[in-house]
Design a protein that fits this description.
single chain, mainly alpha, MetI-like fold, about 0% strand, elongated
Amino acid sequence: MKTSRNLVIGTALSTLFIAAALISFIWTPFDVTQMNIPSKLQTPNGTNWLGTDHFGRDIFSMIMVGARTSIAVALVAVGIGIGVGVPLGLAAAARQGSLLDEVIMRGNDLVFAFPSLVIAILITAVFGPGAINAIIAIGIFNIPVFARLTRSAALPLWQREFIMAARVSGKGNARISMEHILPNVTNLLIVQGTIQFSLGILAEAGLSYVGLGAQPPLPSWGRMLADAQTMVSFAPHLALIPGGAIILTVLGLNLMGDGLRDLLDPRIRVERI
């Protein structure tokens, strides 16, 4: 079976931005906190490869550090969603129709009623804006996503013969969930994780755009767009470059998720053989 083209392209784009984020820990062409007013609003040139912003800061360096911010926020938020949502989904599936199942599902409905932006506003009103609060807001919104996916994927498995055999051997619900159910839903969780990762980057950019995400002097793609909105007419590169970075990163993650689905889904694999 040939390697999925979507997987190759998506992995290449994702790797590019992840590499930029990792490299930014040890090197950037310029200090992202250093202002150089005489060099402000320069277009891409030999010194500043992507130009400079209205404070004279190097945009290429800010894109690198901004990638670090966006990826870190999205990664931790997805980790929160998986770490809390998956156990809840497994518990709900194991006790289908019980009070526990009903409480978990209605709790998911309650969280879904409040988008991540609204949750972020509520958290910010109490604790103030910042990257940590953005992580919490996006992570809370990810919990019901993974809980619902895990439950829906696990329910049919509880009717399978190998689960009945595990019950006969004396295994309890918790052990069956961890040893037999979880390994069989991991493929779906990996694919959904890449999708939520891309949505997390979008959410972080949106929160930073309205001032609820990472705060200065830490660069953020969303705040770079917010700063550029009044200068688009005479310095369009200020908006096009961070906007393009967001588009390419999200596109890469979505293509990678689609490619992983094609690679890991046995039904699609059989159809292509």
